[in-house]
Amino acid sequence: MTDDVRNIVLGVVAAGISAALGWIARTYLWKRKLRRKQAFFGLPQNSESLLVVNRDPATAEPAVHRFDVFALLELSALIKDCGAHVQVVTQDAVHQGFGERTEFCVGGPGSNRRMVAHMAAMLPGVRVNVDPEPGPDRGAFQIGGERYRMDPGITEYVMLARLTAGDRHEARPVFLFCGQRAITNQAATRYLARHHERLARKYGARSFVLLLKVVNSQAYGPDVVELVGDVTKAAQTPLPTPAPRKAHSES
């Protein structure tokens, strides 16, 4: 074997080893990233999850708003990426507790009974005005001592929460997408899809409640979203009970 042939063979071998090491490194990093994503969403390979669908309050018949359909599609893609399975159920057909399967619950308390139950159990510091009558406080959020009113199409709010049942480390999380309008629910799911890695680094397996502001949805749809802040403490601290009104006697 001449020196030229030997150099060619060594070069091919070195290139093959480099390619193999690169493939192994990429595979390792991809698997580590996938494991972190699965841990954050509580979705191990081949696990089961729930997608709880709300109803469109603007219709008399059971129906889902098109923006909520878009939100469900984005969540389905996240679940599929984790290698998990999903069961889609309507908001009035879920009769089980939480913690056994990861749950994604979409829609405010005016359109989702399941959301009402979760908020009562885990977010006692939040109240949502579900009065159907027009007014400045229609759909408003009260979180702790702060109130967030919406200006439809201009400024709207949505809560994005990851909650677990008590201190059970093996409990699967519940993700809540509680918006003032259907388009804000989609904005929250899109925000989660884009920022789940950063949220996983910051919170790990801990619960959190974020308040997001959707800006000018009539022009930008669900794409322009601002983080108002982390409202976890306020949302999980029970609000004071309103003092009973005193009866006025006639003189």
Mean pLDDT score, rounded?
A: 84
Number of helices: 6
Order of helices and strands: HEHEEHEEEEEHEHEH
Taking the alpha carbons of the first and last residues, their distance comes to 120 Å
Q: Which structural class best describes the helix and strand composition?
A: alpha/beta
The number of distinct β-strands equals 10
Biggest sheet statistics: 7 strands, mixed
Strand content: 15-25%
Task: Give the fraction of residues assigned to helices.
Answer: 25-40%
Low-confidence stretches: 247-251
Radius of gyration: 24 Å
Strand order of the largest sheet: 2-1-3-8-7-9-10
Write the layout of secondary structure elements.
Elements: H1 3-41, E1 48-53, H2 66-81, E2 85-90, E3 102-106, H3 113-122, E4 126-128, E5 141-143, E6 146-148, E7 155-163, E8 174-179, H4 182-203, E9 208-215, H5 217-220, E10 225-230, H6 232-236
Parallel strand pairs: 1-2, 1-3, 3-8
Antiparallel strand pairs: 4-5, 5-6, 7-8, 7-9, 9-10
Helix pairs in contact: 2-4
Concise summary:
This protein has about 250 residues and is α/β, with parallel strands linked by helices.
Structural overview:
This protein has 251 residues and is of the alpha/beta class. It contains 6 helices and 10 strands, in the order αβαββαβββββαβαβα. The protein has helices at residues 3-41, 66-81, 113-122, 182-203, 217-220, 232-236, and strands spanning 48-53, 85-90, 102-106, 126-128, 141-143, 146-148, 155-163, 174-179, 208-215, 225-230. The strands form 2 sheets. A 7-stranded mixed β-sheet has the order 2-1-3-8-7-9-10, sandwiched between helices. β5 (141-143) and β6 form a beta hairpin. The radius of gyration is 24 Å and the shape is elongated. Mean pLDDT is 84; it is low at 247-251.
